[in-house]
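Researcher: We plan to redesign the surface later, but first we want a full-length starting point. Tokens attached.
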């Protein structure tokens, strides 16, 4: 499960993210187009936002914020091939500027894009840079995503190390616990997996009802069944089905319940 930082995004409309040059007439027009695009995106008008971002980049191809927002929107649309060049360009431009926390968050988003494209080694490099940046406003997200890249690389012990750092920084980071538990499961460290899954589902009140964490209920049911805790396993699998009986995890939980009878 991927997680991205949105601190920079919250700043767009009020102008607290300002790293591009606006000293020329075209630069100023480009920045106004970018601000309009940010407002349109906030209103759910994605097509209009993309149109104005393209205008912004025609006026100033080095408008880092425009590249970053366009890449982010393409990520939201799950068009990762389209997102990748804009995010890569944004990072190159931001590295030349005094970008503050924006660069760290851009690297986190870019790392997620690379994960979606299956470029796990490249993702791990970028995400480690983001996680280690002292200006990163939400480093636990980058550590969690680094763990996800490492998980895809079958580097399970490294996954545990990264996600432990993520939950050390943010003890309510349920997704970090879940990625950690998946690594412990692959390492066949079942008791550690169960403890991590308790964190995934109980570290924050919102986590137990999150459909995105339905897989954590399924995995905890499987872990507890392997540990011989049948009653607790059945309860977890039933909760998994309650969240969404028609998802892949929901169907798997239903099958596991039927097999346990």
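Model: Full-length starting sequence:
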């Amino acid at each position: 499960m991927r997680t991205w930082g949105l601190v920079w995004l919250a700043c767009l409309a009020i102008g607290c993210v300002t790293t591009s040059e606006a000293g020329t007439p075209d630069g100023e027009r480009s920045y106004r187009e970018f601000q309009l695009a940010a407002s349109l995106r906030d209103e759910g008008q994605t097509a209009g936002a993309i149109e104005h971002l393209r205008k912004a980049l025609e006026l100033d191809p080095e408008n880092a914020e425009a590249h970053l927002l366009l890449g982010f929107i393409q990520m939201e649309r799950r068009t990762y091939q389209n997102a990748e060049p804009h995010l890569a360009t944004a990072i190159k431009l931001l590295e030349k500027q005094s970008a503050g926390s924006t660069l760290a968050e851009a690297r986190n988003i870019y790392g997620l894009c690379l994960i979606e494209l299956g470029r796990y080694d490249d993702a791990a490099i970028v995400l480690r840079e983001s996680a280690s940046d002292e200006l990163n406003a939400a480093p636990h997200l980058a550590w969690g995503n680094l763990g996800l890249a490492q998980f895809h690389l079958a580097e399970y012990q490294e996954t545990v190390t990264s996600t432990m750092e993520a939950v050390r920084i943010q003890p309510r980071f349920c997704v970090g616990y879940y990625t950690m538990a998946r690594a412990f499961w692959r390492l066949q460290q079942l008791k550690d997996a169960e403890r991590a899954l308790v964190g995934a589902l109980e570290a924050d009140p919102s986590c137990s009802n999150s459909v995105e964490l339905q897989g954590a209920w399924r995995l905890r049911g499987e872990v507890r069944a392997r540990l011989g805790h049948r009653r607790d396993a059945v309860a977890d699998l039933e909760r998994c089905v309650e969240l969404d009986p028609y998802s892949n995890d929901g169907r798997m939980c239903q099958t596991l319940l039927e097999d346990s009878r």
